[in-house]
Amino acid sequence: MKIGNDSIGISNTDKIKLLAVIFAVYVAVIMLFDWLLDGSLKTWDNYLIKGLIYSILFSVLIYVSINKLTKKVELKLEIPLVAGEELEAYGMANMFLGKEAIGGKLGITEDTLVFHSHKFNIQKSTIRIPFDEMTVLKPCRVMWFMNNGIEVQTYDSRCVFVVNDRKTWLEIIHKKMN
Question: What InterPro entries does the entry give (predicted)?
């Protein structure tokens, strides 16, 4: 069973927050350059119109690019399984180890949560987390404002996964843990 329809997995609320952050940063940078280079600022409507156009175009470009890339990766990437193991559910995901994000595919088998990275990463690996070793499973925010993360803790490690349809992932993993 495939989990998540949107390859990026960002809610509409988070898309608006991301658009607002891009807008604010762009306007602040342009105002700073105008002030440093010209010694004066232009009218507010000038900054607002340019910022709005830039942030919409940049956000759409990022969304389309990542969406196309993840669909290609999703079709080609296979999660390696142990003999006799079957994949019950899967979906595209990113895994954060510290500050590093690793893209790939997350899968659920009978006894294990399996993450396999795609070839575009510096670190290429397969991480297997048995459900009986999980001590904490909870939703979390990613990058301070994106509400699509899952934190998994074991006795000796912690991983954060960025997933599509977080609610479904949490429900399935909770059932497997119990």
Answer: PH-like_dom_sf (IPR011993)
Closest CA to 166 of 21, 8, 18: 8
Q: Report how far residue 86's alpha carbon sits from residue 159's, in angstroms, rounded to the nearest whole number.
A: 23
Q: How far apart are CA 161 and CA 138, in angstroms?
A: 11
Q: Is the pTM of this model over 0.70?
A: no
CA-based nearest residue to 6, from 56, 54, 57, 74: 74
DSSP string, the chain: -B--SSSS---HHHHHHHHHHHHHHHHHHHHHHHHHHHSS---HHHHHHHHHHHHHHHHHHHHHHHHHHHHHHHHH------TT----EEEEEEEEETTEEEEEEEEE-SSEEEEEE-TTSSS--EEEEEGGGEEEEEEEEETTTEEEEEEEEESS-EEEEEESSHHHHHHHHHHHH-
Contact assessment for residue 168 and residue 139, using Cβ atoms and an 8 Å cutoff: no
pLDDT digits (tens, 9 = 90+) for 105-153: 888 898 899 988 877 666 677 888 899 999 998 988 877 767 788 889 8
